[in-house]
Specification:
The structure is a single chain. This protein is mainly α and about 290 residues long. It has two domains: about 10-180 and about 190-205, no CATH class; about 215-290, no CATH class. The protein contains eleven helices and four strands; from the N terminus they run H-H-H-H-E-E-H-H-E-E-H-H-H-H-H. It has helices spanning about 10-20, 20-35, 50-55, 70-75, 130-140, 175-180, 195-205, 215-230, 240-255, 260-275, 275-290; strands at about 80, 125-130, 180-185, 185-190. The strands form two sheets. Strands 1-2 form a two-stranded antiparallel sheet. A two-stranded antiparallel ribbon has the order 3-4. It is globular and about 70 Å long. The structure holds zinc ion (ZN). Zinc ion binds next to helix 5.
């Protein structure tokens, strides 16, 4: 997970440039929900601004950083995900099904609610694009919080007091995900050993199954290739043009556009700070990728 850089005013401008009536329609719909005191289904139109988020997120899932498809297909496989569920909140962890079944949370996770965050159904800072696995299978109607749930909040900012456990990676409302999570080779781990940030990281990792084999095997391919590129730079007498290409590949792996950029960044930083550990993890990534 990486931070998706955009300021609130810039996000509004992008939404308006894409669909000049969208924010007005959103305000009207939200006013209807406020009058009725709940979310009412029918004529949903958040999908109209999906492309804004796909572009901001470089066609990657906001949570697992998977790249799903090229530009033309991305809009079919990415889903607009409401960070705070719009119509109800289910009890988490789930007793059956997929996801964190059996996980014992390290802290309070809040109660279920028959009312969702209905005033945030059309708030641009309550959306991200997520893959089907993260959105439909794992996120569903869950939203664990450490504090008191405030489903009547009218902005994500005013809901901060409920102390959400999941990280919202878009903009600057929340902590940079890199401050909570880091990668030890292919595995996502909490950056802190204890405390509130540790709890958020543990819940986020379990919630989105960030260490599922689907993801670790793909990260292994990335780290294996990255490790070879880093080692190749040290081969004496390598032609300058090849050296430049290796540098370019290593640079690209860390960019916001790259799949699993957070994992690549931490591995490259480790390669600088603890060479023996990076070599061990690189070799095991190569093995994992091969096997
Ligand atoms: Zn995902």
């Amino acid at each position: 997970m990486i931070r998706i850089h955009v300021a609130e005013a810039e996000l509004h401008a992008l939404v308006t440039a894409h669909d000049h009536r969208w924010l007005d329609r959103a305000r009207q719909r939200t006013a209807d929900y406020r009058r009725q005191g709940r979310y009412v289904e029918g004529g949903e139109f958040w999908g109209d601004i999906k492309q804004v988020y796909i572009k901001l997120q470089h066609e990657k899932c906001a949570y697992c950083e998977s790249r799903l498809a090229g530009h033309a297909l991305a809009s079919k496989v990415h889903e607009v995900e409401h960070f705070r569920p719009k119509s109800r909140v289910s009890a988490w962890p789930p007793a059956t099904g997929k996801g964190a079944v059996g996980f014992v949370p390290p802290c309070a996770v809040g109660r279920a609610s028959t009312r969702g965050y209905y005033l945030l159904a059309y708030h641009p800072l309550n959306y991200v694009i997520a893959c089907t696995r993260c959105n439909s299978t794992l996120k569903a109607d869950f939203f664990p919080v450490r504090g008191r749930r405030s489903t009547r909040a009218s902005t994500p900012r005013s809901a901060r007091a409920e102390d959400p456990l999941l990280v919202y990676p878009l903009g600057t409302l929340d902590t940079d995900p890199a401050r909570l999570l880091r990668f030890d080779g292919v595995l996502a781990v909490p950056r802190r050993r204890r405390g509130g940030d540790h709890e958020r990281a543990r819940v986020t990792i379990e919630f989105f199954q960030l260490n599922h084999q689907d993801l670790t095997s793909r990260r292994a391919r990335l780290l294996g290739a990255l490790w070879l590129a880093l080692r190749a730079l040290e081969v004496p007498g390598m032609p300058e043009d090849l050296r430049q290409l290796q540098h370019q590949a290593i640079g690209q792996a860390q960019s916001d556009r790259a799949e699993f950029a957070a994992c690549a960044r931490d591995f490259i930083a480790l390669h600088r700070s603890d060479r023996a550990r990076a070599d061990a993890l690189g070799a095991s990534a190569l093995q994992l990728a091969a096997g």
